[in-house]
Amino acid sequence: MMDQPPPPKSPPITPGEIPASGPTKTSVMAIVSLVLGVLGFCTLGLGGLIGVILGIVALVSINKSAGRLGGQGVAIGGIVVSGAGLIAGLIVGLLLIVPAMLLPAIGAPRQAAINAMSMNSLRQVSVAAASYAMDYNDYLPRSDDWVDLLDAYVQDADAVVSLSRSPEQGRAYAMNRLLDGLRFADVSDPQRTVLFYESQFGSPLAGGSELLPDQPRYVQGYVIVFVDGHIENVIPEAIDTLVWQP
C-alpha cells in the first residue's frame, strides 16, 4: 500500500491578519466621525476637522483589523461629511469674522469725521463768544440764552442750532453755568476752564459736569471748549483735571 501524500500546509498567518472569529464590530471612531461631520456645520468647521481625522484613523484601523472591525462605509461617509462640514464651517466663519474685523476699520474714520465736524461747529461757537464779548465789554454770553445771543455771530447759522436747540438732529452741548455774568478777564485759568461742553441729549442749555454723558459719544473723548478758545477731546479719566469754577 502506497503512502498517502501529506495534506498541504496552510500559508503562515502574519500578525494583524488573523481571520476574524465571531461577529464583526462597527468601528466606534467611524461612527463618531460621521456624527462630528454633521456637527461640523454648527461648529464653524471644528467638528468637521476632528471628524476627518477620526474618519481617517478609523479607516486605517478597519483595514488592519483583518475583518474584526467593520464600518468602512461609515468611516468613508464620516470623512466626506466631515470634510463638507469643515469647508462649510470655514466659509460661514469667514462671512462672520471678516466683517466683524472690518467694522472697526470702517467705523473709526467715520467717527473721526463726525467728531471733526462737531469740533468745527464748536470752533465757530467759540469764535462767536469772543466776538460777542468784544461788543459787550468783555462779558461772556448769559448761560440761559447763549444760543440766541451767539446766533448772530456764527457764520454757519445751523451750527448753534444743531448743537443745542434741536438735540434730536445733532449733538447736544451746554455752557458752563458758573461763568454766567462774568467777563473773560475774570477767569483765572482760561486754558483749563470749561466754557462749552458735550452734554446729554435733551439736557438744559447750561449746567455743570453733571450734564456730561456717562461716556463720550465718540472714542476720541468728550468735546470741550475752553475759555481761551481752544477745543480738546478729553478722555473720561481726565475730566477731573478740568476747571468749572472760575
How would you describe this protein?
The protein is an alpha/beta fold. The protein has two domains: 25-95; 136-241, no CATH class. Helix content is 45%, strand content 10%. The protein has five helices and seven strands. The strands form two sheets. Strands 5-3-4-6-7 form a five-stranded mixed sheet, covered by helices on one side. Helix 1 (28-39) runs antiparallel to helix 2 (46-64) and helix 2 (46-64) packs antiparallel against helix 3 (72-135). The longest helix is centred in the middle third of the chain and has 64 residues, at 72-135. The model has no long low-confidence stretch (mean pLDDT 79).
Order of helices and strands: EHHEHHHEEEEE
Unreliable sequence segments: none
Number of domains: 2
The largest sheet has its strands arranged as: 5-3-4-6-7
The mean pLDDT is 79
Q: What is the terminal separation in angstroms?
A: 136 Å
* 3D shape: rod-shaped
Largest sheet: 5 strands, mixed
**Global Rg:** 39 Å
Number of strands: 7
Number of helical elements: 5
User: How large is the share of residues in beta strands?
Assistant: 5-15%
Find the structural class using helix and strand composition. alpha/beta
Helix content: 40-55%
